[in-house]
């Protein structure tokens, strides 16, 4: 153990001994009290009262009491120093030792002397008990310090030792030896006990030290732990912060990287754009290292990649500047190198790879100079390829001079057809100055008042806008007063995307040329006899008119006119007479057709008249009537009056067609028809038959089939008396029940049949079919029924009609009175006598004869008287006109005339009550029309008959 510890131990031992002694001494005092009390009591009991012992006892008790009190109050509860306490314990020990020694003295030396029955032996015993027991107690309680024991021990044994000396050893030797042995043992025990005590204390101290050490270590440990914890938390927080910082850092790095990437991309785009811009603009950046005499041209390497490629040229060797431009080039360059100009700029030619000279435009600037002598070191610039520009400019100049000097009017229009440029010739042509023309619409400078002018301009504009071009001759009246015939040629100018950007117009003046031509063409185009346009010119004019006015013209009527029976008359009149007749006829036509578009003499006695129809003008019928009237007065030729009649055929544009050739030929066909009907009449071309003819060439073949296959059927349309609405009979009307086309009306196939022998076969079929039907009705009791049959001229002329009729009458055993034949006026025209004979024979069979479609043909009274006609069938077209005040007199005249001649009058196509009433009032006899019934099938006709017949 170290000195420090040794010292501490000593201090600890000392204070511990004192502390413990202060406790044990109390017990020691109490045990002494007990011993003394025992002695006193024993003595008192056995030997009675002793004054001296009593004093000793009380004194002892008092000392013990006082000592106890002081020990308790002063050293138990009060504060004290170890030194004082040590002193106190020592004083108590010595006091008690003295008191015990006094007790021994009293007991052994005094009492045997004063108390009778009490001897020295008893005194010795009692005193030994007193000291012996007290020392045993001392051994137990005063073992902290040997000194305490000793300062008690020695005073205590002194009187006892003294007694031994004083007493005779023979008597008490054993006793004394024994007692001394005991005392010595006690002394030894005391010293051993103290030592043990000391060792224990030592151990305790060590323990205590260890505990303190341990506690201290625990404390230190705890402190360390706490510090460690704090440190750990700190490090954790730091780690978190670090993590956070690293994340932020990472994010920032990413952000920066992205920014950098975008910047990089932008830069790349800009670079690409720049290169592209350079490329598009034909720019080549260059830099010139003046010191090393090297020029670097940044050329684009290829079209796909925009990476630039640099070419380095040796300035010394290569001077590809055009000899004519060298002077100007070097002058400008030197000026700038010397610092006399802000920048170098020059336009010159350089020699390219293809050995051709190319125009370029250079702009450059010195960017660094030698600070000492101010000599230029480096220069940068841009070269622009202006070759195309230069060439274009030159070409433009050329074009401009062409434009200026051209002997044709040239103008340029914008997309709205407004003038943006004109050449001097066009100014001269129109009589307007350039400034006036610019901004005006192409035809704004022309007279636009009349309909046809406006229409023409509109049609040209439409054509230009839709097709992009126009090229034709026009006659134009300008507001400047000029009137010119022009070749007008306009063409659209398109851009690369085919969008119209401009129009270019070239105008040639044809006025003079046309006048010349006109003079010549008159001779070509006009018929010198009549002074009217000839066929060629007529066709040309009509064609022109139709083409140029196709959008505005609504309807044209093309009339073909021909003199009836001209040939014999011409022969009679001889050449000159014939010519005179034609001349006069032309004159009259000219007068009566003053509103016609064209009037032409085609050839011989053929004329053509063209009218533009509108509701404002008279109808074509009225116009034809006017023509006929104008010709009704005789023509005086060579002093003789001659009557002529004409036939006319009419076709209409656009109903019959849009082509001039067709229109002419249709009008001619209609004319032929009029001629074949006897002339002196007007026929309008009937499209339907022709269409059918053209459309279906197989119809004839099919028709033959139809007859064989019994596809033809007869329908019956009732004829009714006006006065009592009773049925008079039927008209037999044929229909073709076509397997695929359905029920075909007769107009669709009869015209074809008429051109072949088929019509006779059909006629025969209808006659037999009708006769059979009449027989059926007669057998049903309808005796007086009259069924009319339609007969065409061909049937009459062929001659087997009578036989067929006879055969039918015979076969079905019916009378001729039940039959009526309907013939048209045209049937009566040719072979008049033959027809008359046949009709008479028909009449002999008591068959009725009706004149069909009366009013549409010649309507000549002579026919009516010449042929044995019983009935007049007034054509539907007249019935239709009922209600028109102008037309009505015609109907009443026909009826009156028929009546006067004793004929039965049948009105066809009665459709309204008004028509029925009107005709009934005029005493027309029989009505036929949809008002009563449409043509009916055999069965329906029978039903109708049953309902409307009064037997
Ligand atoms: P059509 O002889 O003048 O016959 C009268 C025509 O007028 C019939 O036409 C009839 O259906 C029609 N009709 C009658 N009433 C009215 C009416 O109120 N309004 C209208 N819009 N039409 C009416 P369909 O049957 O088409 O016959 C046309 C022509 O064919 C006949 O004219 C006739 O010329 C001819 N036809 C008919 N059947 C025969 C025949 O068997 N032989 C010959 N050769 N010709 C025939
Ligand atoms: Ca008829
Ligand atoms: Ca008729």
Layout of strands and helices, then pairs:
Elements: H1 3-47, H2 51-77, H3 82-114, H4 120-141, H5 146-166, H6 169-280, E1 283-289, E2 294-300, E3 308-314, H7 323-337, E4 344-351, E5 357-369, E6 376-385, H8 387-405, E7 409-413, E8 419-422, H9 424-430, H10 434-437, H11 451-467, E9 469-477, E10 483-494, E11 500-509, H12 511-525, E12 526-527, E13 532-533, H13 535-548, E14 556-563, H14 566-592, E15 598-603, E16 606-612, H15 620-632, E17 635-637, E18 640-642, E19 646-653, H16 660-676, E20 682-684, H17 687-695, H18 699-708, E21 712-721, E22 727-738, E23 742-744, H19 750-754, H20 758-779, E24 786-790, H21 793-798, H22 801-811, E25 819-824, H23 825-829, H24 832-844, E26 848-854, H25 861-866, E27 871-874, H26 876-880, H27 888-900, E28 904-907, H28 913-921, E29 926-927, H29 938-948
Parallel strand pairs: 19-20, 22-24, 24-25, 25-26, 26-27, 27-28, 28-29
Antiparallel strand pairs: 1-2, 1-6, 2-3, 4-5, 5-6, 7-8, 7-11, 9-10, 10-11, 12-13, 14-16, 14-19, 15-16, 17-18, 21-22, 21-29, 22-23
Helix pairs in contact: 1-2, 1-3, 1-4, 1-6, 2-3, 3-4, 3-5, 4-5, 4-6, 5-6, 14-15, 18-20, 20-22
Summarize the structure in short.
This protein is an alpha+beta fold and 951 residues long.
């Amino acid at each position: 153990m170290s000195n420090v510890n040794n010292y501490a131990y000593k201090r600890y031992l000392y204070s511990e001994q004192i502390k413990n002694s202060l406790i044990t001494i109390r017990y020691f005092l109490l045990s002494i009290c007990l011993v003394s009390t025992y002695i006193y009591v024993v003595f008192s009991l056995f030997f009675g009262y002793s004054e001296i012992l009593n004093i000793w006892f009380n004194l002892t008790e008092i000392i013990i009491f006082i000592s106890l009190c002081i020990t308790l109050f002063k050293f138990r509860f009060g504060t004290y120093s170890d030194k004082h306490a040590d002193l106190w314990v020592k004083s108590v020990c010595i006091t008690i030792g003295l008191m015990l020694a006094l007790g021994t003295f009293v007991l052994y030396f005094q009492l045997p002397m004063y108390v009778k029955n009490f001897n020295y032996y008893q005194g010795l015993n009692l005193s030994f008990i007193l000291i012996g027991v007290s020392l045993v107690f001392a051994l137990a309680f005063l073992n902290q310090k040997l000194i305490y024991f000793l300062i008690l021990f020695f005073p205590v044994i002194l009187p006892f030792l003294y007694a031994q000396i004083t007493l005779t050893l023979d008597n008490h030797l054993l006793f004394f030896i024994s007692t001394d042995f005991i005392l010595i043992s006690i002394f030894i025990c005391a010293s051993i006990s103290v030592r043990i005590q000391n060792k224990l204390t030592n151990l305790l101290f060590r323990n205590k030290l260890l505990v303190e050490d341990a506690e201290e270590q625990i404390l230190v440990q705890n402190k360390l732990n706490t510090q460690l914890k704090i440190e750990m938390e700190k490090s954790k927080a730091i780690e978190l912060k670090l993590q956070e910082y690293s994340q932020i850092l990472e994010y920032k790095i990413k952000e920066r990287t992205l920014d950098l990437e975008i910047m990089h991309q932008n830069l790349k785009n800009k670079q690409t754009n720049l290169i592209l811009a350079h490329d598009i603009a034909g720019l080549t950046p260059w830099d010139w290292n003046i010191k090393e005499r090297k020029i670097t041209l940044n050329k684009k390497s290829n079209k796909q990649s925009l990476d630039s490629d640099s070419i380095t040229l040796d300035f010394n060797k290569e001077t590809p500047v055009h000899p004519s431009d060298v002077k100007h080039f070097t002058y400008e360059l030197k000026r700038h190198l010397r610092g006399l100009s802000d920048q170098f700029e020059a336009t010159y030619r350089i020699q390219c790879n293809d050995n051709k000279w190319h125009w370029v435009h250079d702009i450059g600037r010195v960017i660094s100079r030698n600070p000492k002598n101010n000599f230029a070191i480096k220069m940068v610039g841009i070269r622009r390829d202006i070759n195309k520009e230069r060439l274009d400019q030159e070409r433009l100049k050329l074009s401009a001079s062409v434009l200026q000097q051209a002997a044709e009017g040239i103008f340029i229009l914008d997309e709205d057809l407004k003038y943006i440029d004109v050449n001097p010739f066009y100014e001269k042509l129109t009589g307007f100055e350039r400034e006036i023309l610019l901004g005006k619409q192409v035809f704004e400078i022309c007279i636009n008042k009349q309909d046809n002018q406006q229409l023409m301009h509109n049609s040209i504009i439409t054509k230009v806008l839709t097709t992009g071009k126009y090229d034709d001759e026009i006659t134009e009246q300008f507001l400047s007063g000029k009137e010119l015939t022009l070749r007008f040629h306009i063409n659209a100018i398109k851009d690369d995307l085919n969008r119209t950007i401009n129009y270019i117009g070239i105008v040639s003046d044809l006025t003079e040329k046309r006048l010349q031509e006109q003079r010549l063409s008159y001779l070509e185009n006009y018929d010198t006899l009549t002074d009217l346009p000839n066929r060629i010119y007529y066709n040309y004019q009509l064609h022109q008119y139709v083409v140029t006015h196709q959008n505005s013209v609504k309807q044209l009527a093309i009339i073909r006119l021909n003199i009836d029976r001209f040939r014999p008359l011409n022969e009679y009149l001889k050449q000159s007479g014939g010519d005179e007749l034609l001349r006069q006829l032309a004159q009259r036509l000219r007068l009566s057709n003053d509103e016609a578009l064209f009037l032409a003499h085609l050839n011989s006695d053929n004329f053509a008249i063209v009218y533009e129809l509108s509701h404002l003008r008279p109808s074509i019928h009225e116009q034809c009537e006017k023509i006929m009237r104008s010709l009704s007065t005789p023509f005086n030729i060579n002093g003789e009056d001659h009557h002529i009649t004409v036939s006319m055929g009419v076709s209409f544009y656009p109903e019959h067609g849009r082509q001039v050739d067709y229109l002419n030929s249709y009008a001619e066909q209609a004319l032929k028809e009029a001629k074949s009907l006897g002339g002196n009449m007007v026929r309008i071309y009937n499209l339907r038959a022709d269409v059918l003819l053209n459309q279906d060439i197989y119809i004839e073949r099919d028709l033959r089939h139809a007859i064989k296959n019994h596809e033809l059927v007869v329908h019956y349309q009732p004829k009714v008396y006006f006065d009592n609405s009773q049925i008079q009979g039927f008209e037999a009307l044929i229909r073709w029940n076509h397997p695929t086309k359905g029920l075909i009306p007769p107009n669709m196939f009869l015209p074809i049949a008429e051109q072949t022998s088929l019509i006779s076969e059909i006629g025969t079929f209808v006659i037999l079919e009708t006769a059979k039907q009449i027989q059926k009705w007669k057998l049903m009791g309808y005796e007086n029924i009259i069924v009319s049959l339609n007969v065409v001229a061909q049937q009459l002329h062929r001659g087997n009609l009578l036989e067929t009729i006879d055969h039918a009458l015979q076969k079905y055993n019916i009378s001729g009175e039940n039959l009526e034949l309907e013939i048209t006026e045209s049937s009566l025209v040719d072979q008049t006598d033959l027809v008359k004979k046949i009709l008479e024979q028909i009449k002999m069979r008591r068959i009725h004869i009706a004149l069909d479609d009366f009013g549409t043909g010649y309507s000549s009274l002579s026919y009516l008287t010449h042929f044995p006609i019983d009935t007049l069938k007034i054509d539907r077209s007249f019935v239709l006109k009922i209600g028109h005040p102008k037309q009505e007199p015609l109907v009443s005249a026909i009826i009156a005339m028929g009546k006067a001649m004793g004929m039965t009058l049948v009105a066809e196509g009665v459709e309204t009550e008004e028509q029925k009433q009107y005709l009934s009032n005029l005493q027309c006899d029989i009505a036929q029309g949809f008002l009563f019934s449409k043509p009916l099938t055999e069965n329906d006709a029978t039903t109708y008959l049953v309902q409307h017949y009064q037997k």
